[in-house]
Amino acid sequence: MSSSIQDILRNDSKRLETALNLDAGSARIEVQCLLQAVLQVNRAYLLTHPEQILDVGQQAYYAALLERRLRGEPLAYILGEREFYGLNFIVTPATLIPRADTELLVEVALQRIPSPGLASPLSLYPQGASPPRAAAKLLALARRERGWGRGFRVLDLGTGSGAIALSIAHARPDIEVTAVDASQEALEVARENARRLLVQHEPAHISTKPLALSDVEGSMRTDSVIGNVRLLRSDWFAALQGERFDLIVSNPPYIAANDAHLAQGDLRFEPRGALASGTDGLDDIRRIVAGAKEHLHAGGWLLFEHGYDQAGRARELLSAAGYAGVFSACDLAGIERVSGGAIP
Question: I need a labelling partner for 108 at 20 to 30 A (CA). Which of 154, 240, 318, 343 fits?
């Protein structure tokens, strides 16, 4: 028998609370999201039509979605989308689910992209921090010789759904962003998000060109240019020989391979290769810290997300590799979530 919106909100919120150990508010919001997807309405509609009865088809569709959630499948995969940095991204089981914590990486990155012709090199360092004198001179030299903000190039390693790369590109259409991922499935999701978010109502600026890859990756494939973003398949830096950037960002795998959390909650459904990285979770961060130096201009920054307890080790790795201005930034909960350093 079909139920009303208010009955569903009351009864199924309690079911989700019990099954997934959610708080009452979160459970109710999730049921609202499922109803909005089934009825194709906004939240205000649910609040103003509590007595509406779902028809047989709607009830069946809703019941199927609810059953998936009760089994623990992430809401983002059920709905096929997730909001990140004010934009709506398509997500699939081939990609990580964008999380609010990662918005910090986007914010820190945007702070280090100078406004065209206006930025001081000193503004690229964390607030309150003084860059080494040699690094400041090199930054000033780079600005004079290459022109900050003109042809500024950003690289996003392990782009997944494209959340980081496309958020940066959307906020700064005057720069060039390259987004790479080793997963072809993930790149297809990122391409679709780029088409939706960067071209919108205007004719799509989409082109492809041949790209020779290493023997490990294959013989030939194409990379896509959509708006101000280039997307290509690459195992970290493998397909980027000879290329240099002004800023490199990444949300790499950083969970220890034997961490119990990998078998809990949403992580059970997300791609393991995008989550786990060696016995201490730092294998891929080590590769990125070492490899980025060959792909950054003088004064260029490397920024990456890491685990809640990895900031100290991240700074050690950056300092040992010779990066300048090494720092960590805290998220809204006060947890050091992003670390980085510059090429002196």
Answer: 240
